[in-house]
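Students often ask why inverse folding is considered easier than folding. One informal answer: many sequences map to the same fold, so there is more than one right answer. In these notes we will look at a single instance of the problem. The structure comes first.
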């Protein structure tokens, strides 16, 4: 009499392998932490945008004998920058700083925060102010920075 040998895996073996794969997948997801990765990516974009705004303001000042853009000259309090495409009169009426005169000569477009502005209709999410009127020092901040970071540049 011959014995018949079944080829394949038992149910227990398959369940053990699935369990091991699930544990490894959970470890990888915890190690990668996608929410933290997205927050870091947003903060990197904010650093880039803050520097771009500040560079555009200083290039404008260099070309105009040290004069800052009109809406910025009187801003000693940190004020939100108007987002691109909004009519300048609407920006000033909303109490926002209009930097549209920098486009397209000094910057392609005024950037917006990845999560949007405080003034959801017209705000870009970035704030700007003149910290010293005598030396023309300007500070740009990204108040919506994630992971408890402070993103601000002053020159």
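Output (designed amino acids):
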């Amino acid at each position: 009499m011959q014995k018949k040998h079944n080829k394949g895996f038992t149910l227990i073996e398959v369940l053990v392998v699935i369990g091991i794969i699930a544990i490894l997948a959970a470890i990888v997801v915890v190690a990668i932490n996608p929410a933290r990765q997205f927050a870091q990516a947003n903060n990197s974009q904010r650093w880039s945008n803050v520097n771009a705004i500040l560079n555009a303001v200083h290039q404008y000042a260099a070309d105009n004998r040290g004069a800052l853009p009109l809406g910025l000259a009187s801003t000693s309090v940190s004020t939100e920058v108007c987002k691109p495409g909004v009519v300048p009169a609407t920006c000033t009426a909303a109490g926002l700083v209009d930097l549209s005169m920098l486009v397209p000569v000094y910057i392609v477009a005024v950037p917006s925060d990845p999560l949007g502005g405080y003034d959801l209709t017209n705000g870009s999410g970035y704030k700007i102010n003149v910290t010293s009127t005598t030396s023309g020092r300007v500070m740009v901040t990204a108040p919506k920075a994630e992971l408890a970071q402070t993103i601000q540049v002053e020159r």
